[in-house]
């Protein structure tokens, strides 16, 4: 009845029950240093999948490496599946099958080569892998079927303070298949180990969603930078309450062991952040994503397995030599399932009542009913210590191409003697726990333990010499000479750090670039990431003598039709440049009117900056004078001619100079003119371009006013002409009829003489009065005019 109730509940919850369930369960990333070449890493993506057709189609994906400080993409690479897919082992396979808890572990890997010098940012870097989808029956997040995964790993700079910083991320071993019984205390080993011995700290966090999982690119294995979105928790859930319970799901910060006493049925996802610390400083982190199913376990009699070590019935601990085995036995019962564990991890295939073991560890067996989903029984712990299981070698140091040494140390239990070997040859006298190797080869040790007389061979340290450090020098210009008043950067290559020498004397450590300011013999010693050195061939750097450059003056020309000028510079071999310059010719026509800088550049050597001499080339405009040819005025007048100039004239000469206040200015004042006169004006600009013009001035003593005229159309005296009036440009002539009415007024100047009409109508013959104002403030001339028809 309880089984029927459980299965009905699973169906109602929408949890996986048939083989059609094909979604992700969890996973994590791992970054493992290969150890042969600096920067060589194996990236591992471990994915926990629901077994089925969809899981069978799961292939490797694309990952990205990003710089944390600015999220710049450093590298993109693709993983491929390696090895056989492994099932996740459950202690009670019958119950797991009843609940369709059939998971597999698929491992995808990529070997990548990073350049340490490119990964030196103090804030470090991160790797991300994004994929989909989660189970639709998950109870603690919103819209789970449209929610994806982001697997995330941070790692430190590979190069710190010019030194290689070796590091691998935490390693996580096999995982047990487990379900949680509601109301029962539950623990689960979820911790890892660190290959470098760094401290690991664990904490519960919110799982990461795939970036854009529900958007246009949802479901794609996108490579995109942080930040990555969190999953959306359902109401009442969170990172510290992923599985409700008393207590809720939590993790031991030091060991990584999960624990919960669940109070709610369902399928729950969670994530754990594993932070990596070295000397108290965080250097990296990785996130692990997983899920647990909480079910109602029917109350049954719990099996009580009695375990012992064969032939040691009362001792739960024993020691054996490496290569030997110990037999562990449990009470035999044909109705029981058995699942042996080593260090809390289920052992594949260990499902009988006895087990032969050859490895050190803490062994237990989980026993449950074969045909009933009931609570399982846990045995006591049997401890097996294998002498020599910890026997290994470690190496520190490096063998350069011709120098260097490596200290090899063997680790083992106390009370042990050592004998070292190199390439199958006994190393006489090398009987301590370490040796100093100065030659390449295969090294190992035979350890003889006093306890039981066990003999164990360690693993092998394979020592190789690194390639010769080839240091080279190249000048930034491509020439081994220093230009006048300049310096020459030298560029070193072949190493990670550099030490420069001049004439055999150290001149400092300045990285791969050294700026040379004086002649000499230079070399550089390059040091690679192992500390190996190589010195370059010496390079002789010479100093070029300074040069003095001159350019002859360029005479100015008048107008663009002036003669072209042959340019002359010293020393020979330079280059002329400027507007209007072709080769060594300056052409006024090509340049046009204006002032132009013409340069002459000479280089001490082709790679050097040129020394420049400059001259001014002037194509001057030809001046012009705008001045009337003749002018009429009256005797005694004082006035100016106001000529208009172009071409920037600077010299003026008036001939004759009579009546002028200054004959050498642009606009002299003519004072109290008395007689007719002709002036000639000659002007020049600064370039010497010259032009002249002439004006004739006629001087009238007075205006002659005729006393009659006959506007009868015969062509004679048809208008009232006033000879000499042109000398008075401000003159005003007014004519009146006999009643004193104005019938004509000229305005200023008598430009339209009186023709005997008024508004186009001929006036009658008769006598008319007139008034003539010649000069302001001078009394007008008055008289009578006879109009004859």
UniProtKB/TrEMBL annotation:
The keyword Transport does not apply. Residues 1-21 form the signal peptide. It comes from the Bacteria. InterPro entries: Ig-like_dom, Ig-like_fold, T9SS_type_B. Coiled coil: none annotated. Keywords: Signal. The keyword RNA-binding does not apply. Residues 299-385 form the Ig-like domain. It holds the Pfam family CHU_C. This is Gliding motility-associated C-terminal domain-containing protein. It comes from Spirosoma flavum. The lineage of its organism: Bacteria, Pseudomonadati, Bacteroidota, Cytophagia, Cytophagales.
